[in-house]
User: What shape does this take?
Amino acid sequence: MKLSREEVNDIALESRLLLTEKELDGAVKYINNFLDILDSFKELDLTNVEPFSFAEALECPLREDKVKAFTNTQGIFNESEHVDGSYFKVPRIMED
Amino acid sequence: MELYKLDLYEASKGIKDRKFSAQELFESCRERIDSCEGKINAFITRTDNAEPITENPYGIFAGVPTVLKDNLCTNGIRTTAASRILGNWKPPYDATAWKYLREAGAVLMGKVNMDEFAMGNTCGNSAFGPTHNPNDISRIPGGSSGGSAAAVSAGYVPFSLGSDTGGSIRQPASYCGVYGMKPTYGMVSRYGLISYGSSLDQIGPFARTIRDIQLVMSVLAQYDPMDSSCFREKNPDFTHHEDASIKGKRIALVKEFQNFTLDAPIAEAMKKTQKVLEENGAIITEVSLPVVSKYAVACYYALAMSEAHTNLERYDGVRYGYTVNDAAGIKEMFERVRSYGFGSEVKSRIIAGTCLTEPSRCDEYYVAATKVRTLIAQEFIRAFGECDFILQPVTPSLPHKIGEEDEDAMKGYETDLYTLPVNLAGLPGLSFFTGYDDSTKLPVGLQLIGPRWSDSEILNAGMILERHLGSPKIADGGVK
Assistant: This one.
């Protein structure tokens, strides 16, 4: 299955990436080469194969549901330029 | 003797026996870095400008310096993943692996270079420029943990940490001539490791002796409730046993790999290593991995890119890293931050991952890849019913010159065939030194892999190989 320039650009926009013409050329080639290789999966009979998981744990790997305070919240806020009080402030979300 | 030349065990013992101080060792390492770093460029951030402070002078590391790959979070110290998008981010917490080292007395000399977000195998795909191989500075050190391997190879520090998603510890260890261990998935906590492919990522050590790898593993392999994939019921023992034996162990070669071309020094190393193993009582045998050899590369990249696309959604310029302040709306902010912040390889992988996981294509590609992964894991379980370890190359060739990357990205990826399957099945793998190539003088490494949780047994075998093949020397680092 080959993807067109427009389709690849649409996928990039979905990923919130604006590509230059050169980057788009590279991405189209990259993805189409890659999809060709993935088509090799069709040679395998995967009908009764379960998707992979590391299902060897003897117990469910959950920790106790107990609140534990993270003490360095100031360390988090120090790293953002978009802090307002104890919130992060972002630009307008709704578009015209 | 200059102190920087000591390995971890000797350095730690020397400090504890009061033959020299941690301060003297630290200064020797710092001088070594000063003399080579202009040629090697292993560091992103140096933290060796202050007096060394160890939290535990009686711990295993007793003040011995180390460096960390720059995708391991360090509280209050810049952590970039070699990407512009993280800018000058200073994490508000430590990665568990670093916390364990710190508590055992290790001292941080800095954060080292890597391919951006661990995506690459050259250490040239970094916002901070390429790292050079200390054995030949015109060549790549390998990647993505190229800075961690180069730092140990050049004698900056006796040991370091990296991460391995598809070979990122084992391949640079081999290219730089040091030992590198990719532990069983779940053996070492990933908490505080900047995620690339979460079901594949694993933290592990680099060092110049197997004993040192065992020492670091004994500290790293601890349960951590902050990582749900971390082991619980296992009780790993990384004690160094001088009398360890491989007598009667069945060590297999992969039948299908024998049709693939290897550069002469690597083919010779395979023969030499088999001879050493046989002379020490091991039985060389053969296993068949048809699905692995044909489908692992495609399976790996389908899963790694899908996971990367999800993991990298969080970089939006709101809470950390590079940002813009004049965007008209949030969509514009996200687009401008991500388009400037990510390098082209990362962008390509995000787009590929988005493509594979879209509802219209998900079953055909992503879900199919997760099923192929099951077949690969089952194939390894069957193979380890017939053998104890598998011996194989790390790469088919020695490191190429910087700037000689193949333009066809997928062709470059295929050189990862020997390393990727280990991550898909969550297995442990040791990249070990076999000697130097006569003509290029470059180190030649190979790989020993085993079933899940066989890490300490692999290291015992590695110790016997080291005894007979020799330990690597510190590279000249471009300084004659």
Observations:
- Helices of chain A lie at 5-14, 21-38, 73-77.
- Chain A touches chain B through 53 residues (CB under 8 Å).
- Chain A is about 35% helix and 5% strand.
